[in-house]
Every structure is written in structure tokens, then in C-alpha cells.
Amino acid sequence: MLTKEEQRISKTISYALRHKPEEFDLLLDSEGYTELSEFIEKMNKTAGLALTVDKLHSLLERSDKTRWEITDQKIRAVYGHSIKKKIEKEVAVPPEYLYHGTPHKFLDSILTKGLIPKGRQYVHLSQEQETAVTVGKRRDDSPVILKVDTRSAVNEGVCFYQELEGIWLSDPIPAKYLEVVTD
Ligand code: HQG
């Protein structure tokens, strides 16, 4: 859920991207994308907003409506206001650290964009490092194991939900709370 002020900001963003890019000095490519850092700079200047990359991600994560999306350091409008229908889970306090096993080929992307649910509703995490290894081994013989600093993530508003014994679900986790386990 967004506050009234945040909703206003989100709507200003989609208005700029959908209808009036020129009014905000934005240049969109053929797919409707514009470069994220340039977008932030222009919006702050022309619309008097105080956007940052983190603030945009936070708006996206907490919004019920998808008005715009961020991919590969670019941003564009989303049409049709698809409303995310999530399986509602109860927020719980996770252990201090949780683990996620993933193939090497995803690591660069994860360390840039953070952990995202991709096709699922939530990010999947394990309480035990060993379980994360098993999950990662579905796709890579020697997977990368990421350790999630859940305290810091919770402090920034990331929600965690307890699934079955030892398995946790969460909202997207920014890369700054992830650490590659090396041992
Ligand atoms: C990766 C099984 C690029 C993520 C198991 C994972 C598990 C990113 C893959 C459960 C990314 C998604 C879940 C980013 C995350 N860039 N790749 N920014 N963020 N990824 O299968 O966690 O099949 O949807 O690391 O027991 O592997 O349901 O999730 O490799 O608990 O029975 O994107 O699935 O159970 O893959 O596995 P998945 P997962 P079930």
C-alpha cells in the first residue's frame, strides 16, 4: 500500500511515461523505455520530485497497481493497470539470516537487481544453508549460495512470511542485503 503522497508520485510517473514525456523532457525509445538515472534526474528537475533508485523500487514493491516497471536500469509505463493478486500470507519475524541457492548465471543480475520472485509470487528462502544448496542444485551442479541479512531488510520494509518448516517467503530483496557465501 502506498501513502496518498506516494500514489500521487506514482501517478505523476505514469502520466509522464504514458502521455506527456516531452513535458518532462523525457525521450522514450521504441519500446517506451527511458534510461533510469536520466529519468530520475529529469523528473526531479521538471516535476520537483525527490526520486532515487531505491525510492522507485520501494514504490514498485509496495504498490497494488502496476503503473510502470523497471528492467535493466530502464523504466517504462505499464498499460492496463494489472492488479497483482497475491496469495495473502502472514508477515513473520525471520531468523537473522536466510539462504538462497541459485545458478552462477543469475548472480550478476541478482547482485544488480536484488532477489526477485520471477514467475512466483514471493522469493523463496531457506533457513538452512544446506537446503539452499539443494534448491540451487536443481539448475547448477555447484550453485552460488546467498546469505540474506534479514534484519536490515526488515528495517527497510521488506516483509518475510513463513512457509513450511524451514522455508521462508519474502518480497523482493535489494542486493545490498545479500552476501555470497564463500566456504
Ligand atoms: C533467480 C522448488 C536473475 C533465483 C524449491 C532462482 C524451492 C534471479 C530463479 C522453490 C533474480 C527463480 C523455489 C534476478 C532471483 N536476476 N535471476 N534479479 N532474482 N533470480 O524456481 O528459489 O518447484 O522460481 O535465484 O523447493 O529456485 O515449488 O525459484 O534461481 O523452494 O516444488 O530466479 O521451488 O519447489 O527460480 O525455487 P524459481 P527458486 P517447487
Name a few traits of the molecule:
single chain, 183 residues, alpha+beta, Arc Repressor Mutant, subunit A, ADP-ribosylation fold, 2 domains, 3-stranded antiparallel β-sheet, 6 helices, 9 strands, 20% strand, binds ligand HQG, Probable RNA 2'-phosphotransferase, RNA_2'-PTrans_KptA, Ptrans_KptA/Tpt1
Q: Could you explain the architecture of this structure?
A:
It comes from Candidatus Enterococcus clewellii. Belongs to the KptA/TPT1 family. InterPro entries: Ptrans_KptA/Tpt1, RNA_2'-PTrans_C, RNA_2'-PTrans_KptA, RNA_2'-PTrans_N. This is Probable RNA 2'-phosphotransferase. One of its GO terms (molecular function) is NAD+ poly-ADP-ribosyltransferase activity. By secondary structure, this protein is of the alpha+beta class. Strand 7 (160-162) and strand 8 form a beta hairpin. The strands form 3 sheets. A 3-stranded antiparallel sheet has the order 1-3-2. Strands 4-6-9 form a 3-stranded antiparallel sheet. It has a 3-stranded antiparallel sheet with strand order 5-8-7. Helices cover 31% and strands 20% of the residues. The N and C termini lie far apart (40 Å). The chain has 2 domains: 4-77, Arc Repressor Mutant, subunit A; 97-180, Alpha-Beta Barrel (ADP-ribosylation fold), CATH 3.20.170.30. It binds ligand HQG.
